[in-house]
Structures are given as C-alpha cells and as structure tokens.
C-alpha cells in the first residue's frame, strides 16, 4: 500500500488528493474502517466546516455528515439560511474509529496522535480549497486546526483571525447536542448552536 510521507508533493487537485487519501495507511485506523471519508463540497468553497471523524453511517456511505449529526446540522444550517451545497464539509480524522459491541460499532474519540497524523490531509484540503472562513465543530476539530491550547468554551461563537488571512469560528459538535440528557440544557444549547449558525451566515455574506 502507498504511504505518503511528509516530503511527498501535495496533489494538485482535490480529486487527486481524495484518491491518495482513499489508500491512506498513515495511522492504524484504516485497518478497521470501511473506507476513507474525505471532505465533500465545491473545490473553491469559501467556507469549510470541520467535524471530528466519520460515524457509523458515514463510514458505510463514504460521505461526511450523513448520519444523525449530519441531519441535525443540515436542519440548523438550513434554518439559518446556509446552503449546504456551498460548503466544503470535512473531518479532522478521516477514518471511523470504533469499538465493536455485539452487532453495533461504538464511536471512539480519536486521540491526539491520530488527529496529528490525519492533519496531513486536512492541511492539504485547506491549501487547495482556500476557504476564507473555517468552522471548527467541537474540540477535536479545534485541536486539529490550531496548536493553541484554548478551551472551546472560551472561544466559542467568535470570529477569530487565523494565519493566511482566514477566519476561524468555533462552535460545538452537533453530536454533543444529541447527547444532552437534560431537556432544559438541551434547549439552551440548541439555541446557542442556532445563534452560531446565524453568525456564520452573516460572516458568509
Ligand atoms: N460526526 C463527525 O464529526 N463527522 C461526521 O462526518 C459525522 C459525524
């Protein structure tokens, strides 16, 4: 199998990069996943959304954010007036990490080593797509996008300058909203997420 090294020349197009990523063995996660789930969207999108890693349904479909978290994201961005087809949507880690439990595959959070290995692809996606605005959804995306050890809650909901003239906007991951057991807290957190998407919509215009 082909193993790109740090010295390898970046592929010239997103399609070429996707083809390279499809055979990636840079970390052990490829061994148990069905396939690489690469980013999706216009190759010159102005806005890039970054999640954590594909889930069970994404692993099978080979597309990011098509499962429960993706449906929630679709609904909230649509309400905020954001057209998903204009976004480039990707993940910090491109293989599904899970633990088998009976017939189910239980999502496991990628560790920092896996995030660092996979940042190779995320950085190249950013270099090729050149988005003006990057939206980090959740702490894993934030860790992949910045070396600063800032806590998500401290910088959430603000547009921040990134190197290369880009803007970074940090919000929570939609899966987090789906897991909140307390109804009141859930409603509050949904409202904040909706506000974040409205702010992102404003930054896009
Ligand atoms: N969660 C993510 O972070 N990414 C996906 O693609 C799906 C669920």
Automatic annotation (TrEMBL):
The answer, when asked if Metal-binding is one of the entry's keywords, is yes
An MF annotation (GO) of this entry: deaminated base DNA N-glycosylase activity
UniProt keywords (A-Z) are:
4Fe-4S, DNA damage, DNA repair, Hydrolase, Iron, Iron-sulfur, Metal-binding
Question: A GO term (biological process) for this protein?
Answer: DNA repair
Q: Which domain of life is it from?
A: Bacteria
Where does the Uracil-DNA glycosylase-like domain start and stop, copy by copy?
A: 38-198
Q: Family, per the entry?
A: Belongs to the uracil-DNA glycosylase (UDG) superfamily. Type 4 (UDGa) family.
According to UniProt, the name of this protein is Type-4 uracil-DNA glycosylase
- Originating species: Rhizobium hidalgonense
Portion held of the full protein: 277 to 481 of 484
């Amino acid at each position: 199998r082909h193993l790109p090294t740090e010295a390898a020349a970046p592929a010239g197009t997103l399609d070429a990069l996707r083809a390279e990523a499809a055979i990636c063995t840079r970390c052990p996660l490829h061994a148990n996943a069905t396939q690489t789930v690469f980013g999706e969207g216009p190759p010159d999108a102005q806005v890039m959304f970054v999640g954590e890693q594909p889930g069970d349904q994404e692993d099978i479909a080979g597309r990011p954010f098509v499962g429960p978290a993706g449906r929630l994201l679709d609904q909230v961005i649509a309400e905020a007036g954001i057209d998903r087809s204009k976004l480039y949507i990707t993940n910090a880690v491109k293989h599904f990490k899970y633990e088998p439990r009976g017939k189910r595959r239980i999502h496991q959070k990628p560790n920092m080593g896996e995030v660092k290995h996979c940042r190779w692809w995320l950085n190249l996606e950013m270099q090729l797509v050149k988005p003006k605005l990057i939206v980090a959804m959740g702490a894993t995306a934030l860790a992949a996008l910045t070396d600063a050890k800032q806590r998500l809650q401290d910088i959430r909901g603000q547009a921040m300058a990134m190197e290369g003239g880009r803007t970074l906007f940090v919000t929570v991951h939609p899966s987090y909203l789906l897991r909140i057991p307390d109804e009141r807290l859930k409603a509050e957190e949904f409202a904040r997420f909706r506000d974040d998407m409205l702010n992102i919509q404003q930054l896009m215009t």
